[in-house]
Amino acid sequence: MILITGGAGFIGANFVLDWLAKTGEPVLNLDKLTYAGNLENLASLEGHTGHVFVQGDIGDGALVASLLAQHRPRAVVNFAAESHVDRSIHGAEDFIQTNIVGTFRLLEAVRAHWSALPGAEQAAFRFLHVSTDEVYGSLAPNEPAFTETHRTEPNSPYSASKAASDHLVRAWHHTHGLPVLTTNCSNNYGPFHFPEKLIPLMIVNALAGKPLPVYGDGQQVRDWLYVGDHCSAIRRVLEAGRVGETYNVGGWNEKPNLEIVHTVCALLDELRPRSDGQPYAQQITFVKDRPGHDRRYAIDARKIERELGWKPAETFESGIRKTVQWYLDHPEWVAHVQSGAYREWVQAQYAAAAPA
After folding, report:
1. Which residues of 117-126 are buried (b: 16+ CB within 10 A; e: fewer)?
2. Catalytic residues
3. Which of 79, 188, 326, 343 has the most crowded CB, counting CB atoms within 10 A?
4. pLDDT under 50 in the chain at which residues?
5. Stated pTM of the model
């Protein structure tokens, strides 16, 4: 069994679904179920004996310790994080508590558990920390992409909190010997993405006839990684990554935000045309740029390909088409997320099973 933290969120849920489908190894899934944690993402696993869900906080050291003692997972994969830059600008405290304090308490509980394991289990144990390219800061247009040795220069409260968590993970390895692995990924997209981030927001707003807000001039560049590719990369790092190492995971898809929005609009024009026959791009609205908005991120993913043989399977063209089609095929999911009805569903489904 492996322990996944944050396994009801966007990337975590995709990872849990992929893991069970591809490996069959049981998963213990610990998620606090904040606004972005949604058990509807895992509805297809209802009754699955290989999926054990516990609602709880990685900052609850006693709970984590009890789960480790009871289930004895061979690995921990830490997805749990507050991750929305805009929210971090307006309220940083949740990011400090989850991403820094929570990671510290999780590391301490895992270290105590790992230290007491018998020799073979201790040697095989892994703690994989999932992080972001945003810890590296911003790149000029012609600068080389981020490598694993690029220094951290976070510019938002979110990225600063993630950089701090990365440093804690590194320190627990070098000081205490905890067998850690870290991945720093580029912008993910795909199914189950909460509609506050760029791509799902554009899809949902376009279909609702609302404005498509684009910050500044829309020329902020990001590398885009299909979430299924990210999941396969994490599985590969967990399987064969060198202890103590960091692996950058990217999609080799650098694109400005405005191009992403136009691509989404063009796909919707094809797959779900507006009733008036006009293009969705008419709904694009430029808004004031957010404070401290990083201009460019780019991931150099050659290390993970060279050492572990991983590279993305999806092109941006194939991945974005799958993503738009998924949102068109799942209007109920979108409606529930936006209305908050899924929270009532969670309460009804898990009230009896919630940990004391």
Report:
1. eeeeeeeebb
2. 133-134, 158
3. 79
4. 342, 350-356
5. 0.93
